[in-house]
Amino acid sequence: MNIDRIISIPEPRLERAGPELWRVAAIVEGKEVFIESSLPLSARPESVVCPFLLPAMSRHANLEVASPLDSTFKENLAFVRKRAVEWWPQLDAGEVHAPRGTGAPSGSHSGFFYTGGIDSSYVLQQLHTRLRYAVFVEGFDIPLDDTPRLEKARRWLSSTAESCGVEFVAVRTNLREHPFFREVSWGIAHVAALAAITHALGQHVHIMYVAASDVPPPWGSAPDLDAAWSSESIKIENFSAEMTRLERVRSLAQWEPLRGRLRVCWENNSSELNCGFCEKCVRTRMQLFVSGAPDGLDSFPAGFPLPSVIGRLHSVQHDLHGQWLEICASLEDSGLRKKIERALQRRNPPLWTRALGRLKRTAGHAIRQVTALGKDKELP
After folding, report:
1. Which of 259, 291, 300, 347 could join 296 in a cystine, given CB atoms 3.0 to 4.6 angstroms apart?
2. What is the rounded CA–CA span in Å between residue 177 and residue 139?
3. What's the sign of the alpha-carbon dihedral 177, 178, 180, 185?
4. Are residues 35 and 139 in contact, defined by beta-carbon separation less than 8 angstroms?
5. Does the pLDDT at position 152 exceed 70?
6. How far, in Å, CA of 142 to CA of 349, rounded?
7. Confidence tier at 360 by pLDDT (50, 70, 90)
8. What pLDDT was estimated at residue 315?
9. Cα dihedral: 247, 153, 54, 183 (round 10)
10. At what angle do helices 118-127 and 147-163 cross, to 10 degrees?
11. Is residue 161 within 8 Å of residue 121, measured between CB atoms?
């Protein structure tokens, strides 16, 4: 395909957004994207190239980068583009044009991306003696304007990380709201987004660990694909890809630093960080159940017994059937096993049902915001 469209990637600028707040920002396709943190940041062009390469490919466009790129990073992008074309036919291999630069200074520490879920908690459990930073990105799975949930997540995650001797760092970004970035699904682009944060933290870290995913290809995370977002001075490494999620759960089931602070829910249906009844909450609760933690590590709201919530599951995505079958193989309760088997046989719900679920989640988020505003000012 002939590619004549150009996406311009300007040189990012470094700003002080407050007395103890650093900010890296750039205008891409007419909209500002920023990364903020109390930890000093670096304005490296790799931080802007990473998140916008795949969206450029979705437009069959080239990237024209104003700043010199690390030579190793630029070479690695050839593998990213090749893999993207193989896995996602809607993308086309746009090229990256940029001056060739030298490697930027490397930090001396290791870090990892921490969400409080099973996979990233396993990274913390296994590697905490060699880690300096636990990085939580605000604006990825919890929106920047969802202040109550962000504050609670910070409390949970910082308590767990610091109990292991690891420094907790919050990074804020509007990347996921950027219209151009949103042209590619989060499932495809999420590690590219994490790589953007990694390069912005480049003066502190020489290696950042990404928790392995159990979702099979084509998916935005795989050991070789994650590593391909690295540069000469910064290495991004996928951790524990050889293990199943249930194996990680079994390692964490009795881990006291995580008690009361496991966060797995992405549905955001509740004022709690875990709703307790979405598919991911139920799957995690069942994995903990068969691993000897029927209390769910005290991290899920009461009032949703497992037999009831399993019966309420509309369906289970096909690529998650393996995890549920692994649960069944470890389950002694025949009644629960039958409920799971029935859930696996159900087809995906109709579009109107899924649309209603999204509407409920949006309404719940709006209610939380109104409640938060009410706490800040006196209502008539």
Report:
1. 300
2. 8
3. negative
4. no
5. yes
6. 25
7. low
8. 83
9. 120
10. 30
11. no
- The Cα–Cα gap between 201 and 215 comes to 27
**Which residues sit opposite 252 in a β-bridge?**
none
CA–CA gap between residue 280 and residue 101 (Å, rounded): 44
Q: Which pairs with CB-CB distance under 8 Å and at least 24 residues apart come from 308-312?
A: 309/276, 309/277, 309/281, 309/282, 309/285, 310/282, 310/286, 310/336, 310/339, 310/340, 310/343, 311/339, 311/343, 312/277
Helix (H) or strand (E) holding 230: none
- Closest residue by Cα to residue 125 from 257, 323, 317: 257
Q: What angle do CA 322, 157, 194 make, to 5 degrees?
A: 65
- Render pLDDT for 49-83 as a digit per residue (tens, 0 to 9): 999 999 999 999 999 999 999 999 999 999 999 99
What DSSP line would sit under 238-303, residue for residue? EE-TTS-HHHHHHHHTT-GGGTT------S--SSSS--SSSHHHHHHHHHHHHTT-TTGGG-S-SS
Task: Give the helix/strand (H/E) hosting 5.
Answer: strand 5-9
Instruction: Compute the average pLDDT of residues 112-116.
Output: 98
In the prediction, which pLDDT does 6 show? Answer: 95
State residue 171's pLDDT score: 98
DSSP for 43-106 reads: --THHHHHHHHHHHHHTTEEEEESS-EEHHHHHHHHHHHHHHHHH-TT-----EE--EEPPPPP
Cis peptide bond prior to 218, omega within 30° of 0: yes
Q: 140, 117, 5, 17: which is closest to 61 by C-alpha?
A: 5
Judge whether 108 and 143 are in contact, CB under 8 Å: no
Using DSSP's 3-state secondary structure scheme, residue 33 falls into strand
Backbone φ and ψ for 135, nearest 5 degrees, come out as: -105, 120
Residue with tokens 């029927």: 294
**Measured distance CA(226)–CA(195) in Å, rounded:** 8
pTM: 0.90
Higher pLDDT, 3 or 371: 3
Tokens of 195: 């790589």
Helices (H) and strands (E) in the chain, counts: 12, 13
> Which residue type does 246 have?
L
